[in-house]
Structure formats: C-alpha cells, structure tokens
Design a protein that fits this description.
Blueprint lengths: L39 H31 L1 H12 L7 H7 L2 H6 L1 H11 L1 H19 L5 H15 L3 H9 L7 H9 L3 E3 L6 E4 L3 H6 L1 H9 L8 H23 L12 H15 L9 H7 L3 H30 L4 H6 L2 H21 L3 H20 L3 H28 L4 H25 L9 H34 L16
Antiparallel strand pairs: 1-2
Helix pairs in contact: 1-9, 1-12, 2-12, 2-15, 3-7, 3-20, 5-20, 6-7, 6-12, 8-20, 9-17, 9-19, 11-12, 15-19, 15-20, 15-21, 17-19, 18-19, 18-21
Length: 502
C-alpha cells in the first residue's frame, strides 16, 4: 500500500479551508487524523476512469463548437461569398465578429448558473440549441440573416467553454492539469498516468477541427435539388452537433462532489488529492460579491490578456488561413485540404509540450517558447515571397498559437485557488478569448487580401505582448514564492505554504 503522493509545493493537507469556502457535509476529514492510505494501483485506476469519462465527451462537443464557430471561411470559399455577398466590403468581418459580442458578455452569468443547473443538463442543452441554430444557417438568404444567427450562436456558446475549463480544473491536481487541458482542447484523447502516456484515440478539438476544412469541402459537393453546396456544410454539421448534444445528456459527468460514476472510495480519493494539492476540494459558490472581490486581483487580468493574445492568432488562422492559401494561388479544394496538416502538427506539438510542462511543473517558459514559434511562423508567412516558405510558416504559427491556449488555461488554473475563484477566472479569461476573436476579425481586413499584412503584424504584436506579460508575472511570482520560503509576507492566495507555479 502506498499513500497519495504529497505535493512538492510545501502544502500540507491539514491547512484550514479558505475563509470564503462553505462546509460540505459530503466531504469532511478530521485534520488531526492522518489521511487514509490509498493504493497506487487504485489511484491509477481511478484517474483512468475519470479521464475516460470526463474528457472525451466534452472534447467531442467542443470540437464541433470550434467547427461551428469557425466554418465561415469554408462557406465563403464554397459559394456563400458570392451568394450572400460575404466577400463584399466588411460583410465577412462583421459576420465573424457579431458572434463574439454576446459570447464575451455572457461568460460570467453563464458560470454563475452552471453549477446550479448541473453539467449534463446545462452543457447538453446549449449544445443542442446551437446545433439547431447551425442547421438554420443552411437556409439563410442574406448575409444579415447569417450575422443574426451568428449572434445567437454566440449567446449559446458563451456558457460552454468556460464551464468546461472550470469543471476540468476541479478534478485534477495542478501538476497534471496542462496535459489534460491539451488533450481536451487540442487533439488526442489520452490516458495519462503519472509515468507514461498511452494514446488511446486520435480525437477531437483542434485535431478534429483541422479536418473540418476537408469535411466542409466534401459536404459542399452534395447536390440535392437547387440547394447550393455551402448550405450543406451548415446543415450536416448542425445535425452532428445535435446528435452529440443528445449523447451529452447521458455521458457528461458533473463536479467531483456531485458525480455518480465513481464509487464512494474513488470520490474520496479525488477530493483528497485536490485538497492536498491546493486546499479547495470543498464547494465554494460564486456570488456577485465574490466576483467583485476577485476582479481586484491584477494577475487574473494578466491571465485574461495572455489568453486574448493566444486566441487572436488561433481565430485569425481559422477564419483566414484557407483564404490566405487561396491568395497564394491554390485552388478552392487545395486551400481547404492544405489547411488540415498545420492543425495536426499543432495538436501533436501541444500535447507533447503539455506533457513536458506537467513533468517539470513549469508553465511560463513553455508559453514563451510557443510564442516564439508563432513569431517565426508569422514572419515566414508575412515576409517571404516563396509559397512553400509561407505555407511552412503556417505550421509554426498554428503550433505556437494553438499550443498556448491550453498552456495559458493551465497557468491560470495553477495559480489560483477556491472553486468560486475558478468559476470567475475561467469566465474572465475565456471572455477575453472572445476579444481575441473580435481583434482577429477586424485586423484581417478585406482590402488587405490576399496577404493580410496588417493582420499578420497585429498577430505578431500579440506574441510579443505574451512574452512581456510572462516576464512580468514570472518576476512577481518568484518574488512572492521567495517571501513564502523565508516566512515573510502574506500567504499566497490566503493559504500558508501555497506557491505559485512559474
């Protein structure tokens, strides 16, 4: 028999809960009594069970959330640019950005309601409704109608991604979080025990999304009556989302204290691991008063800006990379097919980097490394006159930008504590991700086609801003960690022994 490994951050499990935490009768342990031992094999089996139940369904739904919100480039290339006048003036950019306005505004209210409603009902319902909206997009006749439905899509998707980030962060310790975030967001569903990586299935999110361009091209070839091929992209992808949403009602699991798929002993293990790691296993409801208090924490705004700087290039390449390829001289078919390989590379790169980041328990250096990859790739695409070099730059840009999304989500999750603060921070950070989408939609202007130099310059600026912010937060985190080690200053996050993850 072996005990659950004590965290390396100096935190002991007998520290009292945060003052904002409320007692949870389902989880109480006499802190004067040594924690019950858990067999290492039992722990491994439990975490495998959690991985298999938690990540695949959320990842499958989020992959189609990404596809549904970013398929306009494919629709435009396959005829809607002419039929709906999307290629005229600023119609394409406006249709893109109207999604993000309600998406940003409704992040926090959605997280306030999320836990009360329950994960399966909340996430399954909004996914079902946005699938219906996608289906309706297949029958629009003007770009204004499409823009209106995009706004409605933003309302529905506002409650999805921050809720996923919140619930995932409540299941895992800080040291094992980035690779889970990567496997949820990026690509590969993987069972990742503490000492090995077992790739179970090529699945989801950016990996699946990278093939959305190929899927869209195939759907656009459907010929039924007088309906244009681009309409089938919306119709079929909407139907797939609806089917996944129905499955979500059954398969999505809730928070650890509300789950129904683990045994009582396994649930106790999950709570004990989280409690030892950061002391916030007890549910702590988010209120508007707490939200106001958390809004004064400057590091949360730094995390939000970092996430905006990561999502800006991610959205820019989702919306414009096939169009940039078209401007390089590739056909419509080849522009969509060639958009897939950079996404696959980004998925594999992000998962590998996430694994190393978890192993060494660092975040900032890996974020800077991936920002540098994006800078190199953007320079290749923006300033080279050789088609092959410009296309190769897309691989590096995709890898850097997409890989930094789960890295930054893990960075913020590692450096806060308390479930209510997690709910607030995930809403704030993902909301700023929507601002990155608006930035991408407006900086890649129609008059700059086919090179979009201004947009590429703006994307470069986001990467330099990322490096600068990481330098500032790392300096502050090191200073505070040293204070804690010397026994001076206030405890970090109100918890003696808690240290920032650099």
């Amino acid at each position: 028999m072996s005990r659950v490994t004590q965290p390396e951050l100096g935190f002991q499990s007998d520290v009292k809960h945060d003052i904002d935490s409320e007692k949870d009768e389902s989880y109480h342990r006499d802190v004067s009594t040594p924690p019950a031992p858990f067999d290492a094999e039992f722990e491994k089996k439990t975490m495998r069970k959690v991985d298999l139940r938690l990540l695949p369904m959320l990842g499958a739904l989020y992959s189609f959330a990404l596809i549904d919100r970013t398929n306009l480039s494919n629709v435009r290339l396959n005829g809607a640019g002419v039929d709906l006048e999307l290629a005229t003036g600023n119609h394409y950019s406006v249709t893109n950005l109207v999604f993000f306005i309600p998406y940003i505004l409704l992040e926090l209210p959605s997280n306030l309601a999320f836990r009360r409603v329950g994960a399966a009902l909340w996430l399954g319902s909004i996914a079902f409704l946005w699938g219906v909206v996608m289906l309706c997009m297949g029958f629009v006749n003007t770009w204004q109608q499409l823009a209106g439905l995009r706004g409605l899509l933003g309302i529905l998707e506002a409650g999805f991604f921050p809720a996923c980030v919140y619930v995932i962060s409540c299941w895992y310790t800080r040291r094992e979080l980035q690779v889970r975030m990567a496997s949820f967001y990026l690509t590969l569903f993987s069972q990742l025990p503490q000492d090995s990586v077992i790739l179970i299935a090529l699945y989801r999110s950016v990996f699946l999304g990278s093939f959305a361009n190929i899927l869209a091209y195939g759907l656009a070839q459907i010929k039924v009556g007088t309906m244009a091929g681009w309409r089938w992209i919306f119709i079929v992808e909407g139907l797939i989302t609806i089917v996944l949403a129905v499955a979500g009602y059954i398969l999505i699991c809730d928070f650890p204290d509300k789950n129904k798929f683990l045994t009582p002993e396994q649930t106790a293990l999950i709570k004990e691991r989280v409690q030892r790691d950061r002391g916030d296993a007890v549910h702590d409801p988010l209120t508007w008063a707490k939200a106001g208090k958390y809004a004064l924490d400057l590091k949360l705004w730094a995390f939000a800006i970092l996430f905006m700087c990561a999502t800006m290039p991610a959205y820019a390449y989702a919306y414009f990379f096939p169009i940039i390829l078209r401007g390089m001289g590739f056909s419509v078919r080849d522009s969509q097919i060639l958009s897939a390989p950079p996404g696959v590379t980004a998925a594999i790169s992000g998962l590998i980097i996430g694994r190393f980041a978890d192993r060494v328990n660092k975040r900032g250096p890996f974020i800077v490394f991936q920002a540098c990859l994006a800078i190199i790739g953007l320079c290749m695409t923006a300033f080279s006159h050789t088609t092959g070099v410009r296309f190769a730059g897309g691989f590096l840009t995709y890898a850097g930008a997409q890989g930094n999304i789960p890295a930054i989500l893990s960075y913020q999750s590692n450096n806060i504590r308390g479930q209510s603060k997690r709910a607030f921070t995930s809403a704030l950070v993902v909301g700023f991700g929507g601002i990155g989408g608006i930035f991408a939609s407006t900086s890649y202007r129609e008059q700059d086609y086919p090179n979009y130099l201004i947009g590429l310059w703006c994307t470069l600026g986001c990467q330099f801003a990322t490096i600068a912010i990481i330098a500032m937060t790392s300096t502050w985190f090191m200073y505070r960690n040293n204070q804690v080690r010397r026994g001076v200053g206030k405890p970090i996050e109100g918890l003696p022994g808690f240290l920032y993850t650099l």
